[in-house]
Amino acid sequence: MTTADPIVRIAGLRLDRGGRNVLRDVDLVVPRGQVVAVLGPSGSGKSTLLAAITGELAPASGSVEVLGQPVPRNQRALLELRKGIGVLLQGNGLLTDLTAAENVALPLRTHTRLPRPVIDRLVAMKLHAVGLRAAADAFPRELSGGMARRVALARALALDPPLMIYDEPLTGLDPIASGVVMDLVRRLNDHLGMTSIVVTHHVHETLPVADHAVVIANGGIVFSGTPQALQASTDPLVRQFLDGQPDGPIPFDSAARHGAAPHATEAA
Ligand SMILES: Nc1ncnc2c1ncn2[C@@H]1O[C@H](COP(=O)(O)OP(=O)(O)OP(=O)(O)O)[C@@H](O)[C@H]1O
């Protein structure tokens, strides 16, 4: 892979879940170094798109290339690729009986054979990067929601992944903590030379730090462009989502539009 190659290249992608089509005709290129916001209403398929990028979900058709290679179906090759993808999930996933430092050390212990002093040093660096070096010995229950999210971020960064994926990084955070996390997303992306994909419905907190925005609705990408172009869009679909209007071209029950029965797990 050369430095000019995109980090993610998706072409003609169709994704199905539970026998139902969720996304179709998706084309997306994420250039190296960018922060790309993937926006869209609940249930539009944002997490489904992430699942295709991390190889959890195989395409029904089309192609997904990540870090210069088609996402492998072979488990061993997939695990290798995933070492290059840091993922921050909305639930944090911190282990409650381990300290912040021990949580951050986990991926290093699992995936490397580095000696203990080197791991300790790397953990201190990652905690420092998220402004939490002083909290190294704290347990997750002793941290605020924003601090716990930053520890989870430090853990996702542990193996220096070239690609970071954030799935709803602001869920449950107050406006101040949200600002801190989004600022970190941008600064870490630039300082550590990463590329970031941020899936969220927190439009107003995310657009200021994004280089590019994509809006998913009604089974596909309905907007792709700069945050400025998104804010200026007059497309009724985009406006309905941005302005939070209940009535418009995005149906309340998006499954109904596809002519299939809503899935049992569909969010209310
Ligand atoms: N494992 C699954 N099996 C069947 N259907 C699924 C599965 N996961 C998601 N879906 C369906 O796929 C559609 C898209 O879901 P997805 O979670 O990707 O949306 P989302 O945009 O990430 O939503 P949210 O913002 O609420 O997290 C929904 O209709 C959902 O019910």
Automatic annotation (TrEMBL):
All residue ranges annotated as the ABC transporter domain in the record: 8-243
Keywords: ATP-binding, Nucleotide-binding, Transport
Protein name in UniProt: Phospholipid/cholesterol/gamma-HCH transport system ATP-binding protein
Domain of life: Bacteria
Name of a matching Pfam family: ABC_tran
Region annotation (Disordered) ranges: 249-268
InterPro entries to which the protein is assigned, alphabetical: AAA+_ATPase, ABC_transporter-like_ATP-bd, ABC_transporter-like_CS, P-loop_NTPase
SUPFAM superfamilies reported for this sequence: P-loop containing nucleoside triphosphate hydrolases (SSF52540)
Any one Gene Ontology molecular-function term assigned to this protein's record: ATP hydrolysis activity
